[in-house]
Every structure is written in C-alpha cells, then in structure tokens.
Amino acid sequence: MLDTRAPKCEAGINLIRLDLMHGKSFTGFGKPGDCKNLPKNVNDFDVDSRGTKSLVPCFECTVYEKSDCQPGDSITIGGNRAFKAMGKKKQHWRSWKCECKD
Q1: Which domains can be identified in the chain, with CATH numbers?
Q2: 30 - beta bridge partners?
Q3: What domain of life (predicted)?
Q4: pTM: predicted TM-score of the whole model, two decimal places
Q5: What's the DSSP call for residue 19?
Q6: Are 53 and 17 in contact (CB under 8 A)?
C-alpha cells in the first residue's frame, strides 16, 4: 500500500554509477526516462570496472557521446553488468539516461 504521507523525492533516485578510476566515481540521480547531461569534469570512465553499473537491477542506463542524449555513439549498461558497447574504445561522454528494461 502506498503511504501518501511519505515525502516526494523531486530530484529522483540514484540510477547509475560510473567508475572514474583512481578511487573516484560519479553517481547519477534523476527520474527514469529523463536525460541528464554529465558534469563538465566527468567525460571518461572505466567501462570494464565492476563499479560502473546501473544501480537499479531492472534498469538499463545508456551513456551518450553527445549532450542531451542525442543519437550517436553510446554505451548501454544493464542492471546485471550486461554491457553492450557501440562506438570507439576511448570516448568522451556527455549525457546519460536510465529506463526500465522491457
């Protein structure tokens, strides 16, 4: 049962973690389906790290080469470390979006 007295979380929830190497990481929060641009100081991450993942198992998160999740090179990170990469090995990334898997 939903408790209507519970506070709303307008900012969303933690959805994705990117391992930036050297012990640092980026945690992206938001609402499922919303596109978010990465901060200017986050443009590369370790795709093969166990720390790079969707934080919600039933979600797939896609990181895009272009701002505002525009079409182009992208990498999709599944909830159970299922990686599907398209594009170059070394890449600079600009935005991300997480959506519920079908």
Answers
A1: 13-100 (2.60.20)
A2: 13
A3: Eukaryota
A4: 0.79
A5: E
A6: yes
Structure tokens at 41: 């100081």
Tokens of 15: 């959805």
Going across the sheet that includes 95-100, the strands are 35-37, 95-100, 59-64, 74-77, 83-86
SS3 of residue 68 by DSSP? helix
In the numeric block, the tokens 């959805």 are attached to: 15
Structure tokens at 81: 């470390």
Residue 69, classed as helix, strand or coil, is helix
Q: pLDDT of the chain along its 102 residues, tens only?
A: 444 455 556 678 999 999 998 889 999 999 999 999 999 999 899 888 889 999 998 899 999 999 999 999 999 987 544 444 544 456 789 999 999 887
d(C-alpha 96, C-alpha 67), whole Å: 9
**3-class DSSP string for 37-67:** ECCCCCCCCCCCCCCCEECCCCEEEEEECCH
DSSP 8-state secondary structure symbol assigned to residue 91: -
